[in-house]
């Protein structure tokens, strides 16, 4: 089954997702807010504050149909309007208590309303320009959902310091694992000339609290190797400037062998003084163009990318060398832990790819410099619909870590299938590693609070491209939104986050909110049911990874086998099997080792299980497989029906686009159901107890 390409749409046309401001029809509310928004006072008159004020002005104009004055003069009428200012500003400080000032962190903000007989003021206060822009979007959103101003009081600080989007964009304009059109940054091996769309993208990202963007693919090949040179740096500095206005730093993925490709050196050995010197010079040049450059993202010794292993050096040697070059400028090295043998022999049952990241990195704990962050995929394999949480979380106390989540739906339906990922991500973040006793949640590890790290956080592989709605599937916008919101505050409830997205994107019609919320919150569960439940994973077509192919990867070199035969399926990863479970804290080791205690949705990840094995429900494994696939494909009808009920209540274009994709989802879910069921039936010869049609 081939992935279906999005039909061509004009590149200059696009929606603004949750920032498409619609007119507020509620006259009562309008009356109440007018005094608070008719003036915008900027108390720190600079480029960034003016930009924030213009954002607010534009929003107010669109939402309430009134055009506020922006005032930066010394005469200020403090009776009516919104005051935007920094902590430390005398005027602002008069309105604040000591304790509330102390609560505002570096990127945080405070929104407070002063409403008396003579004053109607909204205060927006932050310590930094970033805080102001985040606060501006929060205020706009509060106004859009008609928050009660008399009780509006918000102090917000992001929990994690790094909240970064990773683009796998190539310079020819294609996007590796991209399902929403071409790159908004590159085309024809050049940086795109117009940055209008980049600016709108920056607005979207700032509105969800993102503070970093890596604009090029981690597989750095061809022209992209040269992005760190003056050949491209002038253009990159313009992109950086566009993002800077919205509190976002630019990062670049690099090729570890750049000193050879660009510098003409004979080696890229991280311990070679000439190599280090070359990187120092390169970094110096980058900062001369981009003074607040974020740093490098590195995929080394992974899937044919060069790295320190080529020279017999460790990943700490490699990362630290780059970190030393970046340190004087405040840059960081984000080093990926996705290192495994991608040339495995399927006959080899001893090697277990799931163990690779831990085996490569655990021994290096404590060896990385402070400005190195290890970026770890959420699971030990590769963004499957369900995997256990990587044992590296909680496994390396002395190493900064970021969690890598895949917003783009490589293995979760490629934005043809609706698969809201917030529910899965939340489960991952709430996983208790036990590494420092009970309560050692993944979210506390990656937000830095458990081990007191300075650099750590969230990386999300982008799902956007130049399609009309940015994400191919309109409802996949919710995944980008949710990534940002969870990175800002992983304690947030997914229901709340999804609901806010619906309110801002589709309005507050009760049925609309209710149905879309149901659709989102149930979509991952449904997708999992008709594809690869029980932690099985991988049964996709090789290469493009769309559609079912039960043995697509069974005899390949990638190390992703389920080893099904006529009696049993799954890999024994217990301490008696490949030993993968030994990488976890003893608490989990015992649970995962025990087929009776192992969470059932991960059963086949950890155990090799006979088809006749009875699950907790009393069903046999094979019957569960059949039921899951029949039910999953059936439940897509519920998604369709709930969407259909919204006809006429939603913008027609969006409604039709989503309907079209739901239709494809249904067809492709049936394909999954039939291929997988037939596969198991042919392997086992065991019929479905309920006698449903399985193609022999
Ligand atoms: O999942 C695999 C993808 C590759 C990707 C790689 C990675 C960018 O299939 O396309 O390469 O992971 O994460 O590096």
Question: Can you list the strand order of the major beta sheet?
Answer: 7-10-11-12-13-14-15-16
Instruction: Quickly give the structural class.
Output: alpha/beta
Strand content: 5-15%
Q: Give the ligands present.
A: 4-O-methyl-beta-D-glucopyranuronic acid
Spatial separation of the terminal alpha carbons: 20 Å
Low-confidence stretches: 4-11
Query: How many helical elements?
Result: 20
Radius of gyration: 26 Å
Largest sheet: 8 strands, parallel, barrel
Quick one: how many beta strands?
A: 18
Could you give a short description of this structure?
By secondary structure, the chain is of the alpha/beta class. The chain has 20 helices and 18 strands. The model is unreliable at 4-11 (pLDDT under 50).
Please give a handful of descriptors for the protein shown.
696 residues; alpha/beta; eight-stranded parallel β-barrel; six-stranded mixed beta sheet; 18 strands; 35% helix; binds 4-O-methyl-beta-D-glucopyranuronic acid
Walkthrough of the structure:
- The chain has 696 residues and is α/β, with parallel strands linked by helices.
- The protein has helices at residues 27-37, 47-64, 90-94, 98-103, 129-144, 196-206, 233-244, 258-261, 273-289, 315-326, 356-361, 422-429, 442-446, 477-488, 494-506, 510-530, 586-593, 603-606, 621-644, 652-684; strands at 39-42, 69-71, 80-86, 109-115, 120-126, 153-156, 162-166, 186-187, 190-191, 212-214, 249-254, 295-298, 332-336, 372-377, 401-406, 457-461, 568-569, 609-610.
- The strands form 4 sheets. The protein has an 8-stranded parallel beta barrel. A 6-stranded mixed sheet has the order 2-1-3-5-4-6. A two-stranded antiparallel ribbon has the order 8-9.
- Helix 11 links the parallel strand 13 (332-336) and strand 14 (372-377).
- Helix 2 (47-64) runs parallel beside helix 5 (129-144), helix 15 (494-506) packs across helix 16 and helix 19 runs antiparallel to helix 20.
- The longest helix is centred in the last third of the chain and has 33 residues, at 652-684.
- It is globular, with a radius of gyration of 26 Å.
- The model is unreliable at 4-11 (pLDDT under 50).
- The structure holds 4-O-methyl-beta-D-glucopyranuronic acid.
- 4-O-methyl-beta-D-glucopyranuronic acid binds at residues 168, 176-177, 218-219, 299, 303, 338, 382-383, 410.
